[in-house]
């Protein structure tokens, strides 16, 4: 399969997903979204029809799927699923209860189609994440996704960490939980150097390496950690 075939297959899959999420889609709308010509979209729709997908054309309105047609579940990567979990934490801070209810029902449907291992991991991440609005946009980190993965898959992480006194040390840590304060993302992790749980500000992690070594999961919940240490 050449590069053009790969791109077309990817686009056909994406069009199918779009048809599943919206009741009607026009050819010009799809052409803009996928940066192709309207003629290309016509060919793509015909290819879907020839593959047995029941796409109907409503004259002057657009394309739609046959009512009741079920498309196989969309497969999320673990990183994509983790991003949804963070979005869920944001939504939970909203004061509109109906909005929260609708979103949680939607996220439950998304979780239902995840592979079992990914589902277990995102549920663990949801239990180990707390979020409050971060008002300081300058304090940032590029390590959140890697730490999420290490946390849910129990990988030891090696970091170069700079403290408040601007002193840098090398640490081997076992990620346990992620917290968001009004200023920073914080990682709760077992620090092998200090032999205890410590807080690490993500913006002070100057270098991060996920090792192949795994650690034994810590047998407590985040709430139990708070009860014990605060």
UniProtKB/TrEMBL annotation:
Chain ranges of the HTH deoR-type domain: 8-63
Coiled coil regions in record: none
Keywords (A to Z) from UniProt: Transcription, Transcription regulation
InterPro entries: CBASS_pafABC_assoc_protein, DeoR_HTH, HTH_11, WH-like_DNA-bd_sf, WH_DNA-bd_sf, WYL_dom
Domain of life: Bacteria
Keyword Transcription regulation: yes
PROSITE patterns recorded: HTH_DEOR_2, WYL
Record PANTHER family: PROTEIN PAFC (PTHR34580:SF1), PTHR34580
Name under which the protein is recorded: HTH domain-containing protein
């Amino acid at each position: 399969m050449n590069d053009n075939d790969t791109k077309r297959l990817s686009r056909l899959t994406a069009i199918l997903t779009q048809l599943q999420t919206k009741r009607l889609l026009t050819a010009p709308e799809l052409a803009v979204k996928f940066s192709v010509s309207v003629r290309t979209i016509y060919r793509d729709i015909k290819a879907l029809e020839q593959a047995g997908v029941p796409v109907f054309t409503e004259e002057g309105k657009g394309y739609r799927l046959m009512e009741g047609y079920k498309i196989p579940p969309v497969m999320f990567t673990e990183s994509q699923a983790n991003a949804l979990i963070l979005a869920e934490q944001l939504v939970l801070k909203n004061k509109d209860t109906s909005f929260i209810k609708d979103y949680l029902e939607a996220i439950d449907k998304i979780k239902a189609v995840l592979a079992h291992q990914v589902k277990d991991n995102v549920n663990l991440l949801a239990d180990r994440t707390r979020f409050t609005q971060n008002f300081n946009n300058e304090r940032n980190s590029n390590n959140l996704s890697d730490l999420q993965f290490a946390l849910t898959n129990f990988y030891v992480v090696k970091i170069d960490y700079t403290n408040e006194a601007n002193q840098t040390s090398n640490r081997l840590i076992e990620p346990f939980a992620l917290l968001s304060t009004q200023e920073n993302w914080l990682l709760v992790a077992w620090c092998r150097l200090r032999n205890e749980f410590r807080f690490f500000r993500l913006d002070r992690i100057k270098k991060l390496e996920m090792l192949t070594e795994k650690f034994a999961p810590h047998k407590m919940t985040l709430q139990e950690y708070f009860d014990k240490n605060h």
